């Protein structure tokens, strides 16, 4: 069964015959030089970048755990990632209703090495199998199951599909995380009732640019923001409005750029209060837009005009009835709220600055932001596993939650074709649906 003679396995003959185009891609894929084989256990397995592709103790039991995720009456199924080949084998053996099993190769180099070591011809020869290599724009199609280790070792061609799958897999964990925050947010909502009653309604801003050609710049706090403040200042001089997320405020003010609107939503005191512990006097005409679950100390630190906004989460259902206010969407990040506000204000042109969703300069935030830290201590393996493409097509290190925010923003942009989105940064993540502003130096 085990064989490392180059291109000698029966499985390769099957692929050459059934999927010649895929074989050509496999044949041309680069060699993976640092694969280790854990051969001391009962079931040898590849170790790549410290990751075991399958259990070296009981890979069959590991594979069977995934079978519970398959609908009992499924006639077609997508398997994302091959691993060591145990999961496709068990899916075919245990689901007699399957007429078609699409198996997606997430890493062509690893798969080619697998074919040279362990015979995969039993499942590759099954007529129900359809072998695929995902395109760069591939999205998950249900029903599906995943070989989890393959997500961490995905090729560039599978990066976007990997991101969408990771978002779906982590959705339940995110809900649990936000659920744990609800106790804090419920108390802070009560603490802020007087402010909610006294402060303005974000809906007052909706539609104010419906007949106005002015652009809105939305400033995130990504590392690329520091390079863009002069561009933002020039756009403001020409009439653009500036909406900034709270953590971008200090870097902007340091360079003499005053936002027209600041948006804050973080319920944690230490998360947002440092953003406002500066001289805010220059911002006497700036409006703070906030979720009422924000900490009272942070809201009281803002001495000027404030407006309340709610998210569309059911958490706000009751207070939306008793204290009606406008709704701003978020998918977990304040940048989503800022962009949704710009859209609802009626602009047809939005320029994104510092919306990096990555670590393009080895920093977590723009220099001057309170929580800016050096993230170069991310080890090379972690940087390789979590990445996005920048405008030039180069990989930039990221992390799962930021990638999730990016993909949700891209979906949001797709649903707002009436707005033209430009990206001022060439260093941060490429955002699908935006075009790069060539005026950026």
From TrEMBL:
<protein>
    <recommendedName>
        <fullName>6-hydroxymethylpterin diphosphokinase MptE-like domain-containing protein</fullName>
    </recommendedName>
</protein>
<dbReference type="InterPro" id="IPR002826">
    <property type="entry name" value="MptE-like"/>
</dbReference>
<feature type="domain" description="6-hydroxymethylpterin diphosphokinase MptE-like">
    <location>
        <begin position="190"/>
        <end position="360"/>
    </location>
</feature>
<dbReference type="Pfam" id="PF01973">
    <property type="entry name" value="MptE-like"/>
</dbReference>
